[in-house]
Amino acid sequence: MVKKNIFDAPFVKEMREATANMYRLGWDERNGGNISYMLGEEEVGEYLDLSEVIRTIPTGFDVTPLIGKIFIVTGTGKYFKNVDKDPETNLGIVRIAKDGTTAELLWGYKDGGKFTSEFPAHMMSHMARLSVDPTHRIVMHSHPTYTIAMNTVCSTDEKEFTHKLWQSNTEAVVVFPDGVGVLPCMVCGTNEIGIATAEKMKHFRLVVWTNHGIYGTGRTMDEAFGLIETVEKTAQIYMLSLGHIVNVIPDQIISDLAKLWNLTPLEGILKV
After folding, report:
1. What's the first-to-final CA gap in the chain, in angstroms?
2. Which one of 14, 104, 118, 229 is the catalytic residue?
3. Which helix (H) or strand (E) holds 18?
4. What average pLDDT does the segment 150-162 reach?
5. How many domains does the chain have?
6. What is the CATH number of the domain that holds 231?
7. Per the count of CB atoms within 10 A, which of 42, 99, 215, 271 is most buried?
8. Is the same domain home to 144 and 109?
């Protein structure tokens, strides 16, 4: 059977559009940020011969629960601004091999590159989210300016951080009623921060890395992007009003918003 053109694949187009938008918004300077998108074997099989493995790449962590899963992932050292014009160099499609510690390259990284250095953290987050939501597919990491700025002036207490977001924008509790997880400042690109992030991902779809950025997850690219987008917009409101805050959204209003949309806000935050 003749395969379709991989450049026309919806998942490739989504990665090109997402990375372009994230760079345009200033979330991913230079080679900052990364995305991994879990794909179905059938959808990838329309475009690639799944029996043809270009080469193998160590995963850097045992991801046995994901054996056979296929991901399209941004490359290490790659600039988001270059993905759209050269996706085959800056993206790669990999399948977790039977040993659980190797990834089989099916397409991409044509310059000899490999997936993001935070691939272990992504895979750990995928495993954590799949354990609570079997329809999960996206892990997205970025460095949104106002989120990082807010993180420098607020406590790392995640309930306090979430509360400040909910109090600043009525959309916040509606978009992330489950709150935002927060990690203290840690060395990025390590398995340790990946493990800590994955533990938070069992409870949150969003995790802030203090002084670094944010991880967002979702069932679709739009969901993951929209979560980060809403946190960043709300953090911008908070930072622009910092030191001059007169009005915040009362807890009763936040609670009523959640009730209106049949949502259950994270416990232990609202005093109503």
Report:
1. 62
2. 118
3. helix 10-24
4. 95
5. 2
6. 3.40.225.10
7. 215
8. no
